[in-house]
Amino acid sequence: MEDSSVEEITEELAEKLNDEHVRRLARLKSLSDEGLKPYPNDFTPNITSAEVTGRYEKLTAEALAALTESFSLAGRIMAKRDFGKASFIHIQDRDGRLQGYVKKDVVGEEAFAQFKKFDIGDIVGLEGTLFRTRTGELTVEVKTIRLLTKGLHSLPEKWHGLKDVEARYRQRYLDLMVNPGVKDVFIKRTKIIRYLREYLTNRSYLEVETPMLQSVYGGAAAKPFTTHHNTLGMDLFLRIAPELYLKRLIVAGFERVFEINRNFRNEGISTQHNPEFTMIEFYEAYATYEDLMDLTEDMVCGLVEELHGTLKITYQGEELDFSRPWQRISVRDAIIKYAEADEAVFTDKAKAAALAESLEIPLHKDVSHGKILIEIFEKVGEPEFKRPTFVTGYPLEVSPLARKNESDPSIVDRFEVFIMGKEIANAFSELNDSVDQRERFNGQLAEREAGDDEAHPMDMEYVQALEYGMPPTAGEGIGVDRLVMLLTDSPSIRDVILFPLLRKV
RNA sequence: GAGCCGCUAGCUCAGCUGGUAGAGCAUCUGCCUUUUAAGCAGGUGGUCCGGGGUUCGAGCCCCCGGCGGCUCACCA
Q: What are the Cα distances from residue A409, in Å, to A185, A258, A370, A377?
């Protein structure tokens, strides 16, 4: 029972594995044969490396020598420098690294002989007191050290780390283990999400969860993933957005709800797109899209300041200034300005189509006027908005869930936020007129039949919910991954998703 | 989906005009009780992404395929 988990190294096995793997298995076997439990779970550290550094880094060598307190730490051996009868190791735990000094005449002959069989990559538990080395490094003088888990592979190189991009994604644990900074990105990601959650919670928003498996998908223009429920014998979609369910909850009377969760869109993969990505969507009754502009500025600026201590940050070598007020421009003005378009394109669909053609924008047959305009905007306008910009005045036809503008019925009360040329947020005053909503869905059906397979599907149950009365409401979605990219200076969405989707090997 | 680039030891990378595989780190042996990319001396380690082809001979040239990155297209 003692070593049942330690494999015998047969010739057949050794042939399959590389030399290092075989050597480490042999060491584990040998330690186990000497009576060491190979995978113990009875070691409890009482401090972490960062806590040690935080508390004792400033103490002089003399002050440390006077200290009698003993500490126990656990972590992975990241470096080992042997000196015959002594050795320096660095162990890494969740919040940092700390050096340990293992001396034969301190730990004893037998323990030292065992320690010699420990390798870089092994997880150990150690106990000892603190001292400062001649070169000034705060170090644990190790009194006892135990193997907690054997590592059977050598770690990536100590100096260059793990560079191979594919390996970094497929074996993210190695990336996180050996590449400095990667952990920080994901810690920041968590802080960002926590900030957003607290910000809305403090404004009396209720965090909810709505279905990811849906029999009718909606809330965005995108192609869905399909799946199947065996017992119900029913095909289902993975949601492309939570929108229609969150608004049902506004009908229900929650008045302020939000959800932070994954959406799934069956479309291209790029540095800006992962098939599953995280959105925060929030809905507030008795608010308008203009209220949400203020909220967005306030929330994002607060976040940037909390994370960076300033509103001026650097993204990929360019300065990015979040200072308020953010620039505002309408789709119409952006097209006039950046496409140098004639006003007639807004009233004359043929002229809009001609402009699109001159910009080499491919359009399918029977495309709506509004869709043409938005395509033109995306081509010429989007890349221009480096600093945070609210774009308003979206065409009705591309906004089937948004409230019509009162003075211009060809547009809706909607904005998107662009930063560094990328869409970060999308918000609007919600359409709460059920009759209008039904007509808009019918319009989308026509678009679908005309060949737009991302047109919004009809959702009669949603219309029925609106019929019971949804208070005037404004709602917004923010692409969390993209926000994290900006705030962690990451060029690819895969840098901010722990396990991005890859083809299977 | 298209174009370009990449894939060589566990990791980071060299490899000329086609001539039979190399370095550093890791690892092994020896020396070494305050080092930190420890040091010194000497070793081991390869499905050169896979499959075909050309050639006396292919890591290198040609064809097919795989995986990844970037750009473009679609999308957030």
A: 44, 29, 12, 19
Cα A23 to the chain's mean position, in Å? Answer: 38
- pLDDT class of A3 with cuts at 50, 70, 90: very low
* DSSP character at residue A105: H
- Dihedral angle sign, alpha carbons of residues A394, A398, A399, A403: positive
pLDDT (tens digit per residue) in A88-117: 999 999 999 999 999 999 999 999 999 999
Provide the positions of strand B that have an atom within 7 A of a protein CB: 1, 6, 9-13, 24-28, 31-39, 44-45, 66-76
A113 touches strand B (CB under 7 A): no
Nucleotide nearest to A23 (CA to C1'): B27
Query: d(Cα A178, Cα A154) in Å, to the nearest integer?
Result: 12
State in words which class domain A177-339+381-495 has: alpha beta
Q: How far is C-alpha A248 from the chain's CA centre? A: 27
Strands lying side by side in the sheet with A276-285: A206-207, A256-264, A276-285, A473-479, A422-429, A411-419, A389-395, A327-330
Q: Is the CB of A87 under 7 A from strand B?
A: no
- From the CA of A203 to the C1' of B71: give the distance in Å: 43
Question: Does the structural domain A36-149 have CATH classification 1.10.10.920?
Answer: no
Spatial separation of the C-alpha atoms in residues A489 and A420, rounded to whole Å? 11
The separation, in Å, between residue A182 CA and nucleotide B28 C1' comes to 33
CA A49, CA A97: separation in Å to the nearest integer?
6
A64 touches strand B (CB under 7 A): no
Closest CA to A318 of A180, A425, A188, A419: A419
3-state helix, strand, coil in chain A (%, to 5): 35, 25, 40
- Global pTM? 0.94
Once rounded to an integer, what is the mean pLDDT over residues A466-486?
Answer: 97
The complex's ipTM works out to 0.92
